[in-house]
Write a structure and sequence with these properties.
Layout lengths: L6 H27 L4 E6 L14 E7 L3 H11 L6 E4 L13 E7 L8 H11 E12 L5 H12 L2 H4 L9 H7 L3 E9 L9 E8 L2
Parallel strand pairs: 1-2, 1-4, 2-3, 4-5
Antiparallel strand pairs: 5-7, 6-7
């Protein structure tokens, strides 16, 4: 299975993730995962920051992470998760799961980073059971022209190389709908709470009709 290598980002990410969780992202993760049941696939698991927040109604999580260092950290986190977690190498465009085998898919700060989010969502639809849900937590394009313009400038220059391919200015909700999903719930929030190019986030649930 092909891998993605971002060695500098992979070294920095665990510290960044801990700081974000302490600042309130842990609660956003808990809300994102609340109520999930059955067999889950998490795409882009990073260092396993979501694992501690899965409810015990989940029977198994297949956590896919292409970056080797982060995948090793996720494997360590899986040993302490409240539910069974299997960590696997893989890319969002080629998930290591059979057709129609998962009850829900989880994205947390991932669709901003993958090269082709539409292709990843199409592959996600393949592995979901009929009416399977997709949970998403993503930072997105700012609603004001000035900040959106600044996001585009950052995306075209320094931001993706610094932050593992991340793009600040994607309209992820629109991309989810263009991939054939229907959004049944979406919440907008600022994190951090001050308005900046990195603050605009969405959290929600979508399904394939």
């Amino acid at each position: 299975m092909p891998s993605a290598h971002h060695p500098i980002f992979a070294r920095l990410y665990p510290r960044m993730s801990r700081a974000m969780d302490q600042g309130g992202m842990a609660e956003q993760r808990r809300i994102l995962l609340a109520g999930l049941t059955g067999e889950i696939i998490e795409i882009g698991a990073g260092d396993g920051g979501n694992f501690a927040h899965y409810p015990t109604t989940v029977s198994h999580v297949l956590a896919v992470e292409p970056e080797p260092r982060l995948r090793a950290l996720a494997s360590a986190a899986a040993r302490h998760a409240p539910v069974p977690v299997t960590v696997a190498d893989g890319l969002g465009e080629d998930l290591p799961a059979p057709d129609g085998s998962r009850d829900a898919a989880v994205f947390a700060l991932v669709l901003c980073t993958v090269p082709d989010p539409g292709a990843v969502l199409a592959e996600t639809a393949r592995v979901l059971r009929p009416r399977g849900r997709t949970r998403f937590l993503e930072h997105v394009r700012a609603p004001t022209p000035g900040l959106a313009r600044l996001q585009r400038l950052l995306d075209a220059t320094v931001w993706p190389p610094l932050v593992g391919g991340c793009h600040l200015g994607r309209d992820t909700a629109a991309t989810i709908e263009q991939a054939g999903f229907s959004i049944e719930r979406i919440d907008h929030f600022l994190f951090p709470p001050t308005r900046s190019p990195v603050s605009f986030h969405i959290r929600g649930t979508a399904y394939r009709p």
